[in-house]
Amino acid sequence: SPMDGSLAMEGTSPDLVGLRQTAVRAIPATGPCHASVADGMLHVAGYGNGVIASVPLDAYGDFIGEAVIRHDPAAWPVMPTWQPDPEGSDTPSTVPPVSPLPPSHAHQVLPTPDGGYLACTDLARDTVSVIPLSSDSSPLHINTASSGSISSSSTKSAIHPVPFVLQLPAGSGPRHLVFSRDGRFAYVCGELDNRLHRLAYEAGVFRHLDSRSTLPTLPDLQSGPDFPPEPDFPTGRSIQTEPVLPTTTSPPKSYCGAIRRSPGGRWLLVSNRGCDTIAVFPTHADGSVGLPNQY
Fold this sequence. Notes:
Blueprint: E1 6-12, E2 19-26, E3 32-38, E4 41-46, E5 52-56, E6 68-71, E7 78-80, E8 98-100, E9 106-111, E10 117-122, E11 127-132, E12 141-143, E13 149-151, E14 159-161, E15 164-167, E16 174-179, E17 185-190, E18 195-202, E19 205-213, H1 218-223, E20 255-261, E21 267-273, E22 277-282, E23 293-294
Antiparallel strand pairs: 1-2, 3-4, 4-5, 5-6, 7-8, 9-10, 10-11, 11-15, 12-13, 12-14, 16-17, 17-18, 18-19, 20-21, 21-22, 22-23
């Protein structure tokens, strides 16, 4: 519940008609807005304070313990920002620099395809973080007992795993992401910049590749190719070749909402709240995306 910062366990009613509440747990993630299950735990993103909280589950999906903090941005005043290796390797530098951060607003937490990490979008900080599910899988830690100093020790006492942090363009406002079917790419919808950001993913590390507008602008409508629907694609009225807005009219303020991947994996669907369209991007074998059709 975003109002009281709690989780409610729901189960089917005896008559299988509706749901009934079976358990409630308080969680330290204020303003919870997204949840996912991985590694036998329910993970929750807190929009209010940026905390990622986890609650252990039994084999039937029931709560079996209290919530624990998986990631707390307030545990240190600064967060490491990974930089590329000077020689051009995709491996991050051993000792990343630190920088002041604005308040955190975690918007989604999602297990990575390899099962070792949680991917978390932060709308306020314009970041996508990869949080290890195990402390042992993190190469660096923040030692909260030593004024937030960086340590390479694997000691688990009084430490939080340091996430890999990818900084997206300022003002992008990453909201939600989805992974490609093969797990090599992730696609992030920027709520504030109305762009689909394409990332490469491998072993807990993201790399920004490119981005494309989700809005039904006139140039996109004129130059976009026509991709016919496939069996896994919902049918609708394409407005690809129709001017959506007169050239003399300012476009309405719009925000990206949800992003979904079609069952077959060929299409990415992004909702635009404001201009009220669904942008449907074709994806290709190399992970790239084409210009969207608008519905």
